[in-house]
Amino acid sequence: MIKFLDLAAQYESIKPEIDAAIANVIRDSAFIGGKYVKEFEQQFAEFTQAKHCIGVANGTDALEIAIEAAGLPAGSEIIVPGNSFIASAEAITRCGHKVVFADVDEDSYTLNAEGVRSKLTERTKAIIAVHLYGHPCDLDALAEVCKEHDMILIEDCAQAHGAEYKGRRVGSLGNLATFSFYPGKNLGAYGDAGAITTEDDALATRVRMIANHGRISKYDHQFEGRNSRLDGMQAAILSAKLPHLEEWTARRIEIADYYLRYLAGIDNLILPVRKAWARQVYHLFVIRSTRRDELKDYLGAHGVESGVHYPIALPKLLAYAYLGEVDQQAFYNRTDSTLLSLPIGEHMEMKDAAHVVNLVREFFSQ
Ligand SMILES: *Cc1c(COP(=O)(O)O)cnc(C)c1O
């Protein structure tokens, strides 16, 4: 049996550290705010090479708060890729702006400048660059479009902890960046958690205030904010896990390289392409085949779990029917029925990757 995700195995491998972290938070009653949150924020800022890190309640809130902090005129258009988890787009609407879907690069599945340029209007005020599947977007090209058109660049790093663009960590390259620590993400909490990183002092302060009722000190509310805090327990757990993340990521990359090498050259199987400038952290390893459903069943019947990310491109969801238009030619709309995520993660040994490769090869030889 090869699982898609095995959080129980991960816990077993670092049990004393996690148990101690939880016990410390309870002993210190440091449930909200306090030293464990501060410590994690510092550690994660360092990890992302960003100046500021502000913990929030989850990755969706992180997006909403980042967009709100940008202070755009109501009803601004914000460009987002048509292939992502719904949160990337949902946050735009929640902040009173308009979702505009743009097409993506066919190798890396990420938003590119060409896709953005084709959707620009004078109302476009920001773009959400999703580093999908752990592959960074071409940020220099996106930053250039943003500069030309006076737009804000928000990185959605929910799938890309530790990914690098031209040797620099994602999370420090846009105006604002958002992270999710949902349990199944590359760095996951034991519940919901998220963070925002930024280089900008004023944005950092604004983000911190929005997430904590519009205040810096206890009852000095300067505007109406909300409650979206990273809690102490999650922060302590994340701090216990963070020192292991590089090793876990290295295993993901090793498995991905193995898949890329040994699944090459199969008819009707398209592999993801990692750009020369990218350090991809492979939150997901996504292949494409017109025999996707059959292959998924075959793997399942042989004890190998797989996933589909995402089965319905965002513009085709009922939630976006109100936009009134689906671009049938867009890459994400043409390919969503062919995507398959093979198992990948630190819970797998290289022999497990070899087993997956053998099964996939066996399937396509029939
Ligand atoms: C998981 C995810 C989110 C949302 O994060 P939550 O912590 O679940 O709210 C946002 N964007 C992307 C791309 C994601 O994968």
Automatic annotation (TrEMBL):
Residue(s) carrying N6-(pyridoxal phosphate)lysine: 185
Keyword terms: Aminotransferase, Pyridoxal phosphate, Transferase
Pfam families tied to this protein: DegT_DnrJ_EryC1
Record keyword Transferase present: yes
Catalytic residues of the enzyme: 185
Domain of life: Bacteria
Keyword hit for Transferase: yes
Leader peptide range in chain numbering: none
One annotated GO molecular function: pyridoxal phosphate binding
GO biological process, one term: polysaccharide biosynthetic process
InterPro entries reported for this sequence: DegT/StrS_aminotransferase, PyrdxlP-dep_Trfase, PyrdxlP-dep_Trfase_major, PyrdxlP-dep_Trfase_small
PANTHER family assigned: 3-OXO-GLUCOSE-6-PHOSPHATE:GLUTAMATE AMINOTRANSFERASE (PTHR30244:SF36), TRANSAMINASE (PTHR30244)
Family: Belongs to the DegT/DnrJ/EryC1 family.
Protein name: DegT/DnrJ/EryC1/StrS family aminotransferase
UniProt organism field: Chitinimonas arctica
Lineage: Bacteria, Pseudomonadati, Pseudomonadota, Betaproteobacteria, Neisseriales
